[in-house]
Design a protein that fits this description.
Shape: globular
Structural class: mainly beta
Distance between the termini: 25 Å
Order of helices and strands: HEEEEEEEEEEEEEEEEEE
Largest sheet: 18 strands, antiparallel, barrel
Radius of gyration: 22 Å
Helix content: under 10%
Strand content: over 45%
């Protein structure tokens, strides 16, 4: 991080002549208790983990800034779970190993409709289906590289990012804790009307890490999202997305795979119902992959499909959520439930079904509690599993 400290010194020195820098310190503590009952294991897992984030930011007043964030992940009590590094392979996996690392360290510049950054940064784009900081895990994902965002018109936003290394939740101590290579991310967001958004994207991911070369691929896609108001209380939303993915670089497989997602939503005063279908194609040897996505938020909380099966994945889902109104005792509390039916894209073989439920309750400013449960019933893929998480987060 010497480049970061040197840059911070230069920025602070230069800004002394231009404007007085502003500093801010913030942080958070997140405690999580998880239980996992997996039919493939004789023993259930219980994981008691915590994450501490400490973040320092400086803004010079003339567009320059810098961020340094440290992260510590620890365990409380016995390690009755497999964190991927502790050797407790007799238990199911809860992938939150102990680690103390630099979560973020980057320099930035912002002026009018242009912003730039360079260093290590946690980045999430749009719906996080392709680019996510993976905030669910205690060790979050970050990207080493540089990026920019520009708005050449009121209705257009352009974004580009290059990374030569991606820090994974397995931590630096793991032999698979980093994705090394040349990773290009590009996106153009256009709003032709107030209720329509079109996002086109292109990703070029060439992996140097030997264990990940089968992920090397080039992806082009487009997402259309539209909204409508049926009345003062009733609103609708539709999402249609398509992408095409082909092999590149040293990928041992040759393929052209498709991605398709269609979803319809209807919402009222505090409630929302959605139904959709997502398909990642596969040919029996390889499948459409999204290695930098927030998969936990798409194909089930049980995380049975972190890697797309070789015959692909078709996920038909229906969900509902409700947020308590202001006058309620637990103002802003959210309840959600989703049902997934999983099958293969190639051959339409049933994989299984899953029920997901989540309750999030804000206690006060920067304090919240969440309970989340996943019940996966296997039918030809993986094994039955029930997972439950209790999370307490305190910001400061």
């Amino acid at each position: 991080m010497s480049f970061f400290l040197s840059g911070l010194a230069l920025i602070s020195g230069a800004s002394a002549e231009a404007d007085t820098p502003t500093f801010s310190l913030s942080g958070s503590l997140r405690y999580r208790y998880a239980t996992i009952d997996d039919a493939n294991f004789a023993q259930d897992a219980t994981a008691s983990t915590f994450q501490i984030l400490l973040k320092a930011s400086v803004q010079t007043g003339n567009g320059f800034g810098a961020v340094l964030e440290g992260r510590h992940v620890g365990h409380i009590g016995p390690d009755d779970f497999n964190d991927t590094l502790n050797g407790q392979t007799q238990f199911p996996i809860e992938a939150d190993p102990e680690a103390t690392e630099i979560a973020q360290g980057y320099l930035s510049f912002a002026r009018e409709d242009l912003s730039l950054w360079a260093g290590r940064r946690k980045v999430s784009w749009g719906n996080q289906r392709f680019v996510s900081a993976l905030g669910w895990r205690q060790n979050e994902r970050s990207f080493d590289g540089a990026g920019l965002q520009a708005s050449p018109a009121d209705t257009v936003t352009l974004r580009y990012q290059y990374a030569f290394n991606v820090n994974r939740p397995q931590s630096e101590d793991s032999p698979v804790g980093n994705f090394e290579g040349h990773f290009h991310f590009a996106e153009a967001n256009w709003k032709p009307a107030a209720n329509h958004t079109v996002t086109a994207y292109a990703f070029d991911h060439d992996f140097d890490s030997g264990f990940a070369q089968a992920l090397s691929a080039r992806t082009f896609g487009v997402n259309w999202t539209g909204t409508a108001s049926f009345s003062a209380m009733l609103k609708g939303r539709a999402i249609v997305e398509y992408a095409r993915q082909s092999d590149i670089g040293d990928n041992p497989n040759s393929f052209d795979h498709d991605y398709l997602r269609a979803e319809a939503q209807i919402s009222g005063s505090g409630w929302m119902i959605r139904v959709g279908r997502e398909v990642l194609s596969g040919d029996g040897t390889s499948a459409f992959r999204t290695p930098f996505a927030l998969l936990h938020g798409y194909n089930g909380f049980a995380d049975r499909f972190l890697a797309t099966p070789a015959n692909g994945l078709a996920d038909t889902y229906v969900g509902a959520s409700f947020t308590l109104p202001e006058e309620a005792v637990f103002e802003g509390a959210r309840l959600g439930i989703t049902y997934h039916d999983f099958e293969s894209d190639n051959g339409s073989v049933s994989y299984g079904q899953e029920w997901d439920a989540v309750v999030s309750v804000p206690i006060r400013d920067q304090v919240s509690v969440q309970v989340k449960t996943a019940i996966y019933e296997a039918d030809g893929f993986s094994s039955d599993v029930t997972k439950t998480w209790l999370t307490l987060k305190i910001g400061f």
